[in-house]
Amino acid sequence: MLEAREVLFGLHELEGIGWHTIKRIMEHGCWEACLRGDREMLMRIGVDEGRSRIIAGTLSEAFVDRRKQVYEKKEIGFLTYLDEHYPALLRETPWPPWVLYYAGDLRLLNGPSIAIVGTRTPTVYGRRTADMLAERLSGAGFRIVSGLARGIDSIAHRAAMRGPGGTIAVLGTPLDRVYPPENRELFRQLAESGLILTEYPLSTKPHPGLFPRRNRLIAGLGWGTVVVEGGESSGTLITADYALEASRDVFAVPGPITSPKSAGPHRLIRQGAILVTCAEDIAAEYAHRLDCSEIHMMKTPNVEEESLSGEELTVLSRIGNDPVSVDELMVRTKFTFGHLHSVLLSLTMKNKIEQLPGFSYIRKS
Prior knowledge:
Blueprint: H1 4-12, H2 19-28, H3 31-36, H4 39-44, H5 49-58, H6 61-73, E1 77-80, H7 88-91, E2 99-104, E3 113-117, H8 124-139, E4 143-146, H9 152-160, E5 167-170, H10 184-193, E6 195-198, H11 210-221, E7 224-227, H12 236-245, E8 249-252, H13 263-270, E9 274-275, H14 279-284, H15 310-316, E10 324-325, H16 326-333, H17 337-349, E11 353-356, E12 360-363
Parallel strand pairs: 3-4, 3-7, 4-5, 5-6, 7-8, 8-9
Antiparallel strand pairs: 1-2, 2-6, 10-12, 11-12
C-alpha cells in the first residue's frame, strides 16, 4: 500500500489535476479513495466529474512506481507537503506547492534565506549591486534565492556561490529543461553545490505563464525579497507582490532617477519597501532572528588585504565606480598599452576590477 505522500506525488503527476483539486483531496484525506478510483467519493468532496475520471482511470500503485523510477533514473528527488522536511516558510504561504522536485543539497532549505531578484537586462550599476549584495549576504550565512533567469538572477546565484551561505534556484520549467539555455553551466554548478527546485513535473509543457507562478516560491522561501532593478511594469514586481501576500519583507535598491530600470524599486520604496544601500541594511532587519553560532560576521572588504604592487595601486587608484576606457587609463597613468594591459589583467585576476564591453573597466565592490 502506498503512503499518503506517494499518492500525493502520483496525483501531482497527472495531467489535468491542478492545485485546487489536490487541495480538496488533502483537506479530506481521501488517499485510498483515489487509489481505488472511487469517483463517487471524489465527486462528493467537490472534485468534478472530468477530474474524477482522470484520477480513477490513471492513478494506481503501478503508475506511481513508474513515475518514481523516471525521477530516480534522472537523479531527481521529490519532496511533498506531507514530508517532515518540507520548507516551513512555504507552508505559511497562501498557495504552497504540493510537490517540489529538486536536484542538489536539500540542507540549503535550512537556515536564513533572502531572495534577490531584478531585471533580465541590468545596467552596470545593477550588476555590481546584485553581485555585492549576494556575495556579502552569502558571506554572512544567508541562502540566496533567485530564479536562474538572465540578468540579476544569474548574477546573484554566481555571487552567492562564493560565500558559505549558498544559493537556491527556483525554476519556471521542469528540471530536465534549462532556461535560458546559456545558463546550462550555471545549472550544472547549482546541481553540484547548490539547490535547484521546481514544482513542475517532467512532463510539463513549458509556457510563459509558468514563470510568474514560480515567483511565489522565490518570495515564499525567503525571509524577505530584495528588488535590485526593474521597470515600472517589470515581472520582478510580481515577486514583491507575492512577498507582501506572504507577509514577508520587501527591500528595494534605489537607483538613478533618470534610469527606467530604477522605476520599479522607487515605486516599491514609495509604497513602504525598506530602502537598501548595503547588505548590512538587510542583515540588520533580522538581527533578532539570527543564530550567532551559524551566521558569519560580515566583514568589510579591504582593497589592501592582499598585497598589490605599486603599479597595480597606481592603476587601481585611477579606476572608480564609473567605467573608464583603456585609452583614458593610458593618459592617466602614462603607461604603454602593453604595460597597462598586463597590470589590468593582474587586477582583474585579483578580483579588484571588472572588465566591461568596449575595453572599459570599473572597480569592484
